[in-house]
């Protein structure tokens, strides 16, 4: 090889190694959902469908809101979510519309969406990620995993840091306060409540409360009036349709010897803050903690 050709050859290698940067190959994304199923994507999700209002909130919290192309009714937070096309409701999903939106990821709710419909979406080849948060930490883990699926880890990380800061602040302020017995009421006539398997039980404990029906099986067990009176709770917390709360509250007034009634410890918690398993659960916790503080102060001094 001549000297000139050698200089040209080595000069070319130096130029290639110094200026020609080979783009990194995307290795794909693999996460495990809340029911233990692996969800693998070749590329970050860019067309996402949400099958529950809390899922919509989680996606926006994880920085993936711009990629949500479909959501169920009542997906109304944050404000931008109101403009997302609707693909069904709690009564059922519009499978044809979901498929027509060509999603690369569908985020579902294990205990809230009809199982046959999510199974059908899987049969049609759609990627399904199931959510089923039972504890406050589960909300944080969902934000992290959704951020990974959408490659929005930076935004998700910012939300997570604030979430953990808020959570720690509530723990330090309320968890070791004097215990308060609590009956949580979802519905009135049928008296649905929550067990220790439910996220709301975590909130009650966070605030230093003791759920009087924590040991019952199932997420939302049904109880009767006699069992509530027997438990003798110091506080009744209720949530649901706010317009019905005055009627519910008046019914408890029929039992003036119940400590919750006698001390005026009957409280309504806005459902969007306590029934949605999203970062706003800590806003609901703020209201629960404040209610239990009122109850502590209402106790008769020994």
Characterization of the model:
The structure is a single chain. The chain has two domains: 29-160, 3-Layer(aba) Sandwich (Rossmann fold); 175-298, Rossmann fold. The protein has 302 residues and is an alpha/beta fold. Helix 5 runs antiparallel to helix 6 (153-174) and helix 6 packs parallel to helix 12 (281-298). The longest helix is centred in the middle third of the chain and has 22 residues, at 153-174. It has helices spanning 3-19, 53-61, 95-100, 115-123, 136-149, 153-174, 199-206, 225-231, 245-252, 259-262, 271-274, 281-298; strands spanning 29-32, 38-41, 48-50, 68-71, 88-89, 92-93, 105-109, 128-131, 180-185, 209-211, 235-238, 266-268. The strands form four sheets. The protein has a four-stranded parallel sheet with strand order 4-3-7-8, sandwiched between helices. A four-stranded parallel sheet has the order 10-9-11-12, sandwiched between helices. Strands 1-2 form a two-stranded antiparallel ribbon. It has twelve helices and twelve strands. Mean pLDDT is 91; it is low at 3-25.
Secondary-structure blueprint:
Elements: H1 3-19, E1 29-32, E2 38-41, E3 48-50, H2 53-61, E4 68-71, E5 88-89, E6 92-93, H3 95-100, E7 105-109, H4 115-123, E8 128-131, H5 136-149, H6 153-174, E9 180-185, H7 199-206, E10 209-211, H8 225-231, E11 235-238, H9 245-252, H10 259-262, E12 266-268, H11 271-274, H12 281-298
Helix pairs in contact: 5-6, 6-12
